[in-house]
């Protein structure tokens, strides 16, 4: 690369890193909010928040890197136009085609990284996340039961309090459980308890000994109190968020072997971040052109709008392929092709910016 091309590459590279960090913080904050909501509902144990955030990182990166590259190209070129540096470059014969070498020097490694993330890292991380959650929900200690704390789950319909818990996380002392629904409320108290898993059915139980249960109904004065020596209380299974046929956690080799429309849609979806990064990089070159006294904000806002349309159309096309409304051979390709043609047409038509080579 020439000196000017290296200069532009450095401008894009550092802007790309800065934008990526900001977007990563924002998206991980959203993921953390969802995890905290799931934790409150009993879907995620409290001790696994950090691990779940780490396992969500590959999927988050596949979403943010195309947008980060797009914004970095526009923002970097916008600064060059604002400071009149691009005018000087053009006067010395620096055409828009000279931007392609630093562009692809930045985008091609990122596209390769996105392919690794989308086809290998993200599915395995998602599958591992689900496996860890399934295993954790079978263990009292990993499930989040701690002594001296109220554990509110199922949207407040299930409350568990344990005064003491042994090192293995199974045997408990002075247990308090409150279950409620639209018809009744039950309050269980017991001197001792034990958390265990039925190996045949996979259901979770609290075995309570030496206690009593108090049952009442809304708008009724009658209260029933029953004492017991032992009672096995079945714990409700957490309501897990479902994904369509768990395609997101299936290995790429399994999707290739399946060959059905949903699997082909998932394969095209995993390829989309890398393709979108390259297409958006080309689109950013004409989109970043601005007049001498024109600010960068309007161009970036227009770019974000185009990106939103692009991303939502891809998601809509994916659903069409899954529902067999759109044939897989058309799939998501038409969206990438349309945006690529727009970028090429814009480059050719914007003569005041592209110049001649």
Word description of this protein:
The protein has 357 residues and is α+β, with helices and mostly antiparallel strands. It folds into two domains: 3-136 and 244-354, no CATH class; 144-235, no CATH class. Helices cover 56% and strands 17% of the residues. It is built from ten helices and six strands, in the order αααααββββββααααα. It has helices at residues 3-40, 49-82, 85-91, 100-136, 140-143, 252-258, 261-287, 297-322, 333-349, 351-354, and strands at 149-153, 158-165, 171-180, 185-197, 204-216, 223-235. It has a six-stranded antiparallel beta sheet with strand order 1-2-3-4-5-6, with no helix packed on it. Helix 2 (49-82) runs antiparallel to helix 4 and helix 4 packs antiparallel against helix 7 (261-287). The model is unreliable at 352-357 (pLDDT under 50).
Give the end-to-end Cα distance, rounded to a whole number of Å: 16 Å
Q: Tell me the count of domains.
A: 2
The low-pLDDT segments are 352-357
What's the gyration radius in Å?
28 Å
Largest sheet geometry? 6 strands, antiparallel
Q: Would you list the SSEs in sequence order as H and E?
A: HHHHHEEEEEEHHHHH
**Large-scale geometry:** elongated
Q: Tell me the structural class.
A: alpha+beta
Whole-number mean pLDDT? 80
Q: Which strand order spans the largest sheet, edge to edge or round the barrel? A: 1-2-3-4-5-6
Give the number of DSSP strands: 6
Task: Assess the beta-strand content as a share of residues.
Answer: 15-25%
**Alpha plus pi helix count:** 10
The percent range for helix content is: 55-70%
């Amino acid at each position: 690369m020439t000196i000017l091309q290296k200069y532009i590459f450095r401008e894009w590279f550092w802007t790309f890193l800065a934008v990526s960090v900001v977007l990563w913080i924002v998206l991980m904050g959203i993921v953390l909010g969802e995890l905290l909501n799931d934790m409150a509902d009993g879907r995620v144990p409290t001790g696994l928040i950090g691990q779940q955030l780490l396992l969500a990182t590959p999927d988050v990166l596949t979403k943010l890197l195309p947008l980060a590259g797009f914004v970095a190209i526009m923002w970097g070129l916008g600064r060059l136009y604002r400071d009149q540096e691009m005018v000087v470059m053009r006067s010395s014969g620096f055409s828009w085609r000279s931007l392609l070498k630093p562009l692809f020097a930045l985008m091609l490694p990122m596209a390769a990284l996105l392919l690794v993330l989308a086809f290998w890292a993200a599915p395995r991380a998602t599958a591992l996340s689900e496996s860890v959650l399934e295993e954790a929900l079978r263990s009292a200690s990993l499930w989040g039961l701690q002594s001296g704390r109220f554990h509110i789950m199922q949207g407040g319909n299930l409350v568990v309090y344990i005064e003491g818990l042994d090192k293995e996380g199974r045997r408990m002392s002075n247990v308090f459980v409150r279950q409620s629904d639209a018809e009744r409320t039950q309050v269980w108290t017991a001197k001792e308890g034990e958390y265990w898993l039925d190996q045949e059915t996979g259901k979770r139980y609290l075995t309570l000994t030496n206690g009593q249960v108090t049952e009442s109904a809304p708008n009724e004065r009658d209260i029933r109190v029953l004492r017991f020596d032992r009672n096995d209380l079945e714990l409700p299974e957490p309501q897990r968020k479902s994904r369509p046929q768990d395609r997101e956690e299936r290995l790429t080799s399994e999707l290739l072997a399946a060959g059905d429309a949903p699997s082909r849609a998932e394969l095209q979806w995993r390829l989309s971040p890398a393709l979108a990064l390259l297409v958006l990089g080309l689109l950013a070159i004409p989109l970043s052109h601005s007049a001498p006294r024109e600010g960068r904000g309007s161009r970036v806002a227009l770019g974000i709008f185009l990106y939103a349309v692009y991303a939502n159309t891809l998601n809509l096309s994916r659903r069409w392929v899954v529902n067999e409304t759109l044939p897989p051979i058309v799939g998501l390709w038409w969206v990438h092709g349309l945006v690529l043609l727009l970028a090429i047409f814009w480059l050719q038509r914007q003569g005041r910016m592209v110049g001649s080579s």
